[in-house]
Write a structure and sequence with these properties.
Oligomer: single chain
Number of strands: 2
Order of helices and strands: HHHHHHHHHHHEEHHHHH
Strand order of the largest sheet: 1-2
Shape: globular
Largest sheet: 2 strands, antiparallel
């Protein structure tokens, strides 16, 4: 595919993914309020999505043999950590606040690039990380002892931010060639299917779905002033906010890069905030709105400031080392 066409396709997929992910918290909140635990909702979301994508897993049955570490890492970090911590967070703090805290992820991703991958980052990127942190401070209202926010909810949202970093890193890696063993990048549909399967298996003994109040799924729950069937909310969470969101998200990162996809993913927080405001009545005060804008602005600045590729960093480091060496003349 032509690079320009590939980029346009990647950006389109990233937009769809951000909007799909943005509706997950609003649809899941009534289920949690009705008596289902966050872990039970997460397990239902992941397990049913894995069931939907089971034919995809069968089609790509060679992936566990070729890339076991990649699949397990995506399942544990990109599925279990992100979704589990986020759903736990929204059970204790407003949906919009949880997502805005989660978007400390771009700053954390910048730290990973700089200190783990040892790639150079620009001053603008560091400024973006600082702005994001300042915005986060306004969102959680640190001057009032975190205000009315539950500390465990805040910590869970921060853990989801760390998981988001891993999600982008693993997704970006899946789009790269993996040596002679796999001449082609990992298919995003296969990666998503097996990641969800791993997540469902890992969470099974923790979520204990056999203790779920199944009768709740047969009721109607309040949403936006209306009564909505619980099964419809669960169906939205599974088909739109999980299957569609993950498939398009992984595909977009593999076509773009973690930094670029991270910029577009900021739209998720905007979508979730608007939906939570309209449908759940979760209003933010002025300082929190200002903080949210700073979080999104800082995330965009940090991610748009592309880090130096590893090869370029290594080359630059080699040039510096050569300049530091004394000049010698070898005579034949």
């Amino acid at each position: 595919m032509h690079p320009v066409s590939q980029r346009r396709t990647g950006l389109s997929l990233a937009l769809v993914s951000a909007c799909a992910f943005g509706g997950s918290g609003v649809a899941a909140k009534p289920l949690i309020d009705a008596g289902l635990s966050p872990l039970q909702v997460v397990w239902l979301r992941i397990a049913l999505s894995a069931l939907v994508l089971l034919p995809v897993a069968v089609r790509h049955r060679d992936l566990p043999r070729r890339h076991p570490g990649l699949l397990v890492g995506f399942g544990l970090i990109g599925v279990v950590c992100v979704q589990g911590c986020y759903f736990f967070a929204i059970s204790r703090i407003p949906v919009a606040v949880a997502l805005l805290i989660e978007y400390l992820g771009p700053a954390l991703l910048l730290c990973y690039v700089r200190f783990v991958q040892r790639r150079r980052v620009t001053r603008a990127a560091a400024l973006g990380a600082l702005v994001t942190t300042m915005g986060l401070a306004l969102v959680v209202q640190f001057w009032d002892g975190l205000g009315s926010l539950d500390p465990l909810g805040v910590l869970a949202a921060l853990a989801a931010a760390c998981g988001m970093v891993g999600y982008f890193i693993v997704s970006e890696k899946s789009g790269a060639k993996h040596g002679d063993e796999a001449a082609e990048p990992v298919d995003p549909m296969g990666l998503t299917a097996y990641g969800l399967i791993v997540g469902a298996v890992v969470l099974l003994p923790i979520a204990q779905p056999w203790r779920t109040h199944w009768h709740t799924l047969g009721t109607e729950l309040p949403l936006g002033g209306n009564q909505v069937p619980a099964l419809a909310l669960l169906g939205w969470v599974v088909l739109v906010s999980t299957v569609l969101a993950y498939l398009t998200g992984v595909a977009s990162v593999s076509r773009l890069s973690a930094p670029v996809a991270g910029v577009v993913a900021c739209l998720e927080a905007v979508v979730a905030t608007v939906l939570a405001w309209v449908l759940l009545g979760q209003h933010l005060d002025a300082p929190q709105i200002a903080g949210g804008l700073l979080v999104l602005t800082g995330a965009c600045v940090a991610q748009l400031s592309t880090a130096t590729p590893p090869e370029a960093s290594a080359a630059a480091q080699g040039r510096e080392e050569r300049r530091e060496q004394p000049l010698t003349h070898v005579h034949g």
